[in-house]
Structure formats: C-alpha cells, structure tokens
Amino acid sequence: MTPEKESDDLALVRRFQAGDVRAFDAIVEAHFEAIGKLAVRLLGWRGDVQDVLQETFLVAYERLPQFEGRSQLRTWLAAIAIHVARRSLRRRRFRFWETAPEIAIESDCSLERDERAEQLRRAISRLGDSLREVIVLHYLEGKSIAETAEILGLRVNTVEVRLHRARKLLGAALEGRI
Q1: Which of 19, 59, 89, 102 is deepest in the core (most CB within 10 A)?
Q2: In order of start, what are the domains of the chain with their CATH numbers?
Q3: Per residue in 27-54, pLDDT tens?
C-alpha cells in the first residue's frame, strides 16, 4: 500500500472519529473489494461471503473509534474479517470452496492448467483453518510473512512453520499421496 493511501485511510479514520459518519462510507468503498476477495478465499461458499462482509464492516464501525493506527487500516480490517470468517466456518462446519469462481488462481486457456488449479483449490479447502489462512494471506493475497503474522496475531516464526506445513500437505495432495 502506498504512503498516500495510508495517509488517506488515516485521514478518513480521523474524520470518522471526529463525528463524520460519511467518512465510514468512504472507508467501506475503498476496502470492500479487497476484504470481499479475502472472504471468498477463506470461505469459498458465496452465500456466506455477504454475511461475513456485513459483519466485518459492522464490527469495524463499532471499533473504529478506538483505532489507533498502529497497523494499516486494511490490515486491521483483514484481521476482523478473518475472525468473522472463522466464526462463520465454525457455525457452518462445511465448505464449498469449489463454488467460488473468482478465486485468484488464474488459468488462461489450457484444460490441464484448469484441472490443476481446481485440484489446488480443493487441496487448499481441505487444509485446516490455521494452515489455509496463512496460504490465502501469503500466496493469494500477496501479504509478506510479517504482514500475515500481524493480521493473524501470530509470531513470524509461527507463520513460517504453518506455511512450511501447508506447502508439504499441498505438495502431497497434488502428487496424489493424500
């Protein structure tokens, strides 16, 4: 995120904290798509994505008066979205990752590549929540290991270990060993 975007976000937060509730609309508009993509990648089931987005921004609205700017606004929103998604997954106890067409494992033209991407989507969906979250944040969302750790409230070495475990499991799944 650019320094200008960060300062724009902080200015919107300060306006909201000063009583300008319209600033929150601008925050939602600026971050809705990114948080929505994160929710799709975490949940996979399109029906739950809207609920998670609504609850995420509701929680953000309630907690924004206490936001101190120690992290980027998008990082803070992503952490809220992950917690809301975890609750949703616990309530549902089933995942339909295969029904989420916009997952950013792009395939251009070859059927083989499409099949491989689908195989990868299914393998990711079978990972436990803690491993799936680090894969989604680091590889699909493009977050650094440090950013992933911050969003999840973990130590950097914990994220590294989870990424290592997840890669091993995904490799085994793609080779047909599990």
Answers
A1: 89
A2: 1-95 (1.10.1740.10), 106-178 (1.10.10.10)
A3: 999 999 999 989 888 887 666 788 889 9
Q: How far is CA 106 from CA 80, 109, 145, in A?
A: 27, 10, 22
Sequence-ordered list of residues with C-beta below 8 angstroms from that of 128, at least 6 positions apart, any chain: none
Q: Which residues contact 17 (CB under 8 A, 6 or more apart)?
A: 64, 65, 67
pTM score, whole prediction = 0.66
**Contacts of 27 by beta carbon, 8 Å cutoff, 6+ apart:** 9, 12, 13, 16, 60, 64, 73
Distance CA 125, CA 142 (A): 18
Measured CA to CA, the distance from residue 132 to residue 162 in angstroms comes to 9
